[in-house]
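The instructor's notes for this session suggest beginning with a concrete chain rather than abstract definitions. Hand out the sequence below and ask the class to guess, before any prediction is shown, which regions might be ordered.
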Amino acid sequence: MTNSLLSRLGERYDPDPRAMVVCLLGSAFTLAMLAPIADPANPYHAFGVAGTSFALLVSAAVLVGRWRRETPSG
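After discussion, reveal the predicted structure:
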């Protein structure tokens, strides 16, 4: 059941790795720019950090998943 679900999702959702790299680098740059002006009391800053962290984690997860699928297992 899980394998058929994953294969069906893999057929319908196939992200472009170049787009994920751009998202990864962009979100890492944005987090680096937000780090020196850390202001936890500002809700806009907290939302920006949370959203950028989410984008960074999702793009890294997609790239690792793609890498693991394409790497031949010995």
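Then share the key points. Residues 43-70 form the longest helix (28 residues). The two ends are 26 Å apart (CA to CA).
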